[in-house]
Amino acid sequence: MAASVRLSPAARSLFDEPLAIAVQGLGPRQRVTLRASLRDETGELFEARARYQAGDGGELDLARCPALPGGSFSGLEPMGLLWALQPQKPFRRLVKRDVQSPFLLQLEVLEGHGEPAGRLLAQAQHERAFLRDGVRRVPVREGRIRATLFLPPGNGPFPGIIDLYGTGGGLPEYRACLLANYGFAVLALAYYSYEDLPKDMKEFDLEYFEEAVNYMLQHTQVKGPGIGLLGISKGGDLCVSMASFLKGITATALINGSVANVGAVLRYKDVTIPPLGFNAKHIKVNESGIADIIDVLNSPLEGPDRQSFIPLEKAESRFLFIVGQDDHNWKSEFFAVEGSKRLQAHGKEKPEIVCYPGAGHYIEPPFFPMCAASMHLLVGRPVMWGGEPKAHCEAQIDAWQQIQAFFHKHLTGKPSGTSNKL
């Protein structure tokens, strides 16, 4: 009997869903290497490989069979072939640009544990998709807004969220559309380096973001009375600023965000918040040429840098801080703790803080492989993001659930039959 790969779901799954992988038809206790690979939209190859030994009946189920040492990972890791994917060229991060097309995952079963691997015994391919059937993707060009709205299937209205990414600019849509698969109306909002928006990060006008908030609050498919904000990195401190100054924001979730304004001047009407100062002499560069920028930013608790601390005590929003404790971009846990102290000092509710040991800066939706280092636009060289791959993968799975639970709780209220008090 020839070897064959068995996948469940068989042909297609959402990117953030688990994929069950098994091989049948091998010889008893046969040694094989499994190789997974995919190409991103620029043609860059990402791959992972793992060494296995089949059972007595020639069956190999990754949910029950541990990987042996010598591959990209070892131990019982049913999704290891996905979270361990690494770029063949250094400093590349796996991102999805066109969410309307899936990633095509290739799986190969190769004979033995040798280098190079032995002959091909079986192969399969599988689509890892981003849009659930029925989710609508709506480009938004209203006033100054440059965005994409994702609406779940059904009649709505749905709890609404604005989603912001970091210093990479452009209009990443993949997190917004994955979130829309779970019943949220999500607006992926560009704010610089996209179409006719500013080309660089010199200053941001909060009135641009206010337009986007008002667009969502007035949308017939968005359930009021307030909306949520989700931001990672620089997008996180923009979300804190929005929650602090703008009306209609009920829940704000930050992934490794800052509570100080970073990287650009922020203006709103007659208010100006300067960016947090930094000292480039604190950049440490290792022998591989990768910069560690963890100590570059000044403290927002001292001297003139206190003006950069965003007045989040003005917010009417609840806050959730998702923290990677091995974040090397900046001190995310320090920012979360200082934000919490400031809120409580002003009589506001303590925010939720969820910390993940071994997680780095880019906490993405589940099963995105960890990016240890990549180019940083503002630094002009590769920087270290931190993280340990297995712990980071586990953090991504849990954080995704925490974010959805937080938004369901504060945007839809408690399940019926309980008190309406939040």
From TrEMBL:
Similarity-based family: Belongs to the C/M/P thioester hydrolase family.
Stated name of the protein: ACOT1 thioesterase
BAAT/Acyl-CoA thioester hydrolase C-terminal domain residues: 205-412
Keywords: Fatty acid metabolism, Lipid metabolism
InterPro entries referenced in this protein's UniProt entry, alphabetically: AB_hydrolase_fold (IPR029058), Acyl-CoA_thioEstase_long-chain (IPR016662), BAAT_C (IPR014940), Thio_Ohase/aa_AcTrfase (IPR006862), Thio_Ohase/BAAT_N (IPR042490)
Residue ranges occupied by any Acyl-CoA thioester hydrolase/bile acid-CoA amino acid N-acetyltransferase domain in the UniProt entry: 16-142
A biological process term (GO) from this entry: fatty acid metabolic process
Name of the gene this protein is made from: Acot1
UniProt keyword Ubl conjugation, yes or no: no
